[in-house]
User: Fold Heme exporter protein CcmA from Neobacillus bataviensis LMG 21833.
Amino acid sequence: MIEIKKLTKQADNKLILRGVDLHIEKGETVAILGPNGAGKSTLLKVLATLIKPTSGQVLINGMELKKNQVEIKKLLGYLPHSSLLYDHYSPLENLVFFGNIYGVRVVEQKAIQLVKEVGLSFFLNEPVKNFSRGMIQRIAIARAIVHDPAVLLLDEPHTGLDQGAISILNNVILSMKEKGATTLMVTHDFKQAAEICDRVIIVKNGKIVDDFKIENRNLGYVSEKYELQMEAVS
Ligand SMILES: Nc1ncnc2c1ncn2[C@@H]1O[C@H](COP(=O)(O)OP(=O)(O)OP(=O)(O)O)[C@@H](O)[C@H]1O
Assistant:
């Protein structure tokens, strides 16, 4: 589904990604862990076609990223740090707007269903500018999946969410997985990674330093593997 070969990214004379090789199967839910500044968001931005890699190759669904940006963008649902929502629009208006960009059919119905799914039906027609950070994040998640993307790219999706909203988000991710979606999630939240991901990738200094499967939601195993990499000299 996603094939990354010898990927590098340089900016301002700094090598941010230093040769990333990664293969992700369709339907996998993968957590990307790593310390601040490791290059996690940069990797996600390259996959989201927002920044160009310096060298290397990325294939999504067999299509080369460099040559098929328009086709690939249709497959992607990207949740960045900023919500990308229009402040003065309501959740309904925002989702209809973004749904129309992606050519979603029966878009209003889809928007209403998603707002319900993220638990904000009561605020369907309120301008987003009046929302709390957690409420905005819920609508941002709905925006990212309005077109039922085959690939979900989530950058710290649990940040700012209360326990109820975390459950809602995890259910959204799991229901996307049931529909066959592939998810890559940058996170500092090991608990959530262990809860919903099948696999963990640890990024350090622009490189993948560990890559392992998680079984039985074993949070202790994830923490141990992480600590081991942080202690290692690289
Ligand atoms: N456009 C850019 N120009 C120069 N340096 C950049 C650019 N984008 C990112 N960087 C640097 O690259 C490094 C990796 O950034 P990135 O945002 O990918 O890290 P991250 O692993 O997501 O970190 P965090 O956990 O803090 O979000 C950082 O040192 C950052 O300052």
